[in-house]
Amino acid sequence: MSYAIIGFGKIGQALAHAFARKNIDVTVASRRPPEALAPQARAIGPSVVAKSLQNAVEADTIILAIPFWEHRAVAKALPSWEGKTVIDATNAYGVLLEELDGLPSSAVIAKAFTGAKFVKGFNHLPAAALAADPTVEGGHRVVFLSSDDEDATAPVAALAKQLGFAPVKLGKLNEGGALVQARGRIWGQLIFQDLFKKEQ
Fold it and tell me: Which of these, 61, 65, 142, 162, could form a disulfide with 11 (CB 3.0-4.6 Å)?
């Protein structure tokens, strides 16, 4: 399984730290050329490699860590997303509800990635918490996952566990997923909730 993080701001770098901590290879890309990202990628760890967007989208699993509206440009990088898993770690801060047609922001993004297995995840934590070691006092930091495709969630939950997090499935995007949506000035109840799950 190959992984890529699209977006290399605070959240993208925090996720890269999570991969580096477990020595899992991950590609990082953004609007900037790969050589601009390379020094920071190398500083995070040898398993983090900067590539072009076009190369990054060749990965099996792609995490979106970009400003909300940039998803359109990323979606155009491939004619079809069949066979790919897309993890939406974005939040629609400041995006007017009318612009979303009353849909959860993830549902809007999912439409652009035709054919992909689509999961909302890793979006509710601030970058500092996401970058920190998720193993705390005999437990693991929780990440919430939601998807309209039950089969899509399992491999993303497996990745979250591999990274040291405790995945909690919230169900469909318009149900439990709404608890981790940030859009306009409305915040889901679970945004920024830094929770831990104890080992059983």
Answer: 65
Residue range 125-179, pLDDT digits in tens:
889 999 999 988 778 988 989 998 988 999 999 999 999 999 999 888 877 655 5
Separation of alpha carbons 17 and 9, rounded Å: 12
Phi and psi of 59, rounded to 5°? -65, 155
Structure-derived torsion over alpha carbons of residues 23, 113, 122, 63, reported in degrees to the nearest 10: 20
pTM, entire model: 0.90
Q: Look up residue 62 and give its two tokens.
A: 């792609």
Q: How many helices (H) and strands (E) does the chain have?
A: 7, 13
Q: Which amino acid belongs to residue 28? A: V
- Domain boundaries defined on the chain: 3-198
d(CA 134, CA 40): 22
Maximum distance among all Cα pairs of the chain, rounded to whole angstroms = 46
Is domain 3-198 annotated with CATH 3.40.50.720?
yes
